[in-house]
Write a structure and sequence with these properties.
Number of helices: 10
CATH architecture: Orthogonal Bundle
Order of helices and strands: HHHEEHHHHEEHHH
Strand order of the largest sheet: 1-2
Number of domains: 1
Helix content: 55-70%
Largest sheet: 2 strands, antiparallel
CATH topology: Hypothetical protein af1432
Oligomer: single chain
Structural class: mainly alpha
């Protein structure tokens, strides 16, 4: 039902504008998958593990569309999830995979946030609903494409800039899934924990 890792890698190559972008986005996606798998293991949670793997590996596919002429469009970064959804739909991926792409940005984006902040997104709610969506969104917050690992505390402080309810959503995911051992991932990938 879901694509192989080779198929996913080929899709990344198809949309990556160059090797640098591919290395950044694909490595980040693999790390998010690894973090999600650790959280599944330590919680012994029942879920669709194949969906988690596919969703984690493809959640940031829309990021490639923000690279142009060796530059990255940070201003429109908030749209990368929606862009990923469109790419995955065009590639005939299952809706549950596409939704992971569209619903993983930040701690979710509400219709109200889009209107109040004039965000460059189609008006709608982009909130993680299923356990698989929530897990990939949560695992994603522990790694940045800069590249570095984010502690729970550092991402919480960042998220609370957008309102206490955003920080509370992050805390509730910690309560649901626990905390990954970032030191292990930092050693494996050579990215610092900040």
């Amino acid at each position: 039902m879901y694509p192989s890792q080779d198929d996913i890698r080929r899709l990344h190559r198809k949309y990556a504008p160059d090797d640098i972008a591919f290395d950044i986005v694909y490595t980040h996606s693999a790390i998010v998958r690894d973090i999600a798998f650790e959280l599944i293991r330590i919680n012994d949670v029942e879920m669709n593990v194949a969906l988690v793997e596919t969703g984690a590996l493809l959640h940031d596919i829309g990021t490639y569309s923000l690279y142009a002429d060796g530059k990255f469009d940070r201003k429109n970064y908030i749209s990368h999830g929606i862009r990923g959804y469109k790419i995955l739909r065009e590639e005939n991926y299952p809706e549950e995979v596409c939704r992971i792409a569209s619903n993983h940005t930040g701690m979710g984006i509400t219709k109200q946030m889009i209107i109040e902040q004039s965000l460059p997104l189609p008006v709608g709610d982009y909130m993680a609903g299923t356990i698989e969506e929530r897990l990939v969104m949560y695992a994603d917050k522990f790694h940045s494409k800069t590249p570095k690992f984010n502690t729970f505390e550092s991402y919480l402080a960042f998220s609370e800039q957008f309102g206490p309810e955003v920080g509370n959503r992050f805390k509730s995911l910690r309560d649901e899934f626990g905390l990954p051992n970032l030191a292990v991932f930092s050693k494996k990938y050579g990215h610092p924990v900040v």
